[in-house]
Amino acid sequence: MNLGPHADFIVAAYAITMSVVAALVAWVALDYSAQRRILGDLEERGVTRRSQRKG
Amino acid sequence: MPVIDLANPTRFLNIVNRVLPWLIALTIILFAAGLFRAMNAPDDYQQGATVKIMFLHVPAAWLGMFGWGLMTVAALGTLVWRHPLADVAGKAAAPIGAAFTFICLVTGSLWGRPTWGTYWVWDARLTSMLVLLLLYFGVLALYWTAEEPSRGARAAAILSLVGAVNLPIIKFSVDWWNTLHQPASVFRMGGSKIDPALLTPLLIMAFAFTLLFVTLHLAVMRNEILRRRVRSMRLMQAQELAEVT
Question: Does residue A54 form part of some domain?
């Protein structure tokens, strides 16, 4: 595949797009594991939400 | 299952947990196919290989605008119908829409230099797209800095509705004003002006990016619901501690 005289522009566009998408995916995955961990800690300490409480 | 059941966050989480793995797999497959077709697409007779930037730039532009459209509908849900998940959906769409708008602006700039001879020009299309990015930053600032989440949500919903005025300006800017940016060439009266050899990979990439948006949006909504649960549990804990002491 020959990208011609403007290869740098094409490679930069794909590299930046991939970096932004990778950053988004990493943020979502890390945030998910963080929220799950905090929820687990709270539940272990016996903290519940109001809707989970009985009578 | 009635659609109204989706308003229940627990039921919504169950559905998202079941659907996400499939969406992730489908997104990866579509990106593999789209990138393969994009890399093997012929050069444009005028732009040469730089036309490959189109496969990123055009879907990113569509999704930057789609994100704000989604936030507009969510804003109506927050302000008018007070749907429990509307604010969650609006808040989740903002960072993703901002990221796609940023990709659109950067790839457009990198495409503009070899084809127009400049990275940036203050024409109506480019400027209105930059305004969209600034509006996204505004909404994110409202969400992230509000002391009381519900107050931040209302302010962000109002800004989302006001900012929706920018969407038709972006779309029709190339028709209303004399711009360096080309007019619509994919969805237009009389059919697409793009050769099928370039249009097919573009549409596959657009579909792949759309699935990526949907997948990320559902995942961020799930995170936001969990974050609100954490907040509510901490408030309960603080309340109990206050009652004891």
Answer: no
Size of interface A-B (CB pairs under 8 A): 94
Per-residue pLDDT reduced to its tens digit, B162-196: 999 999 999 998 888 888 787 777 777 677 778 88
B240 min Cα distance to partner chain A (Å) = 10
Full domain range(s) for residue A38: 4-44
How many domains are there within chain A? 1
Q: Is residue A19 part of a domain?
A: yes
- Interface contact A22, partner B, CB < 8 A: no
H and E: helices and strands count for chain B: 7, 0
Residue A16 has a CB neighbour count (10 Å cut-off) of 16
In terms of CA atoms, which chain A residue is nearest residue B113? Answer: A9
Determine the Cα–Cα distance for residues B66 and B71; give it in Å rounded to an integer: 9
Flag if B237 and A1 touch (Cβ within 8 Å). Answer: no
Q: What is the pLDDT of residues B83-128, one digit of tens each?
A: 879 999 999 999 999 999 999 999 999 999 999 999 999 999 999 9
Q: For residues B239 and B242, give the distance between their C-alpha atoms in angstroms, rounded to a whole number.
A: 5
Nearest chain B Cα to A46, which residue? B237
Within chain A, how many helices (H) and strands (E) appear? Answer: 1, 0
A51 in any annotated domain: no
In 3D space, the residue among B196, B216, B214, B192 whose CA is nearest the CA of residue B204 turns out to be B196
Instruction: Count the neighbouring beta carbons within 10 Å of the beta carbon of residue B239.
Output: 11
Highest averaged pLDDT of the listed ranges A2-6, A43-47, B51-55, B190-194: B51-55
Q: What ipTM is given for this predicted complex? A: 0.90
Residues 6 or more apart in contact with residue B161 via CB below 8 angstroms: B72, B75, B76, B79
What are φ and ψ of residue B44, in 5° steps? Answer: -75, 145
Instruction: Check B107 against A17: CB less than 8 A apart.
Output: yes
Residue A49 lies in a domain: no
Contact B223 A16 (CB under 8 A): no
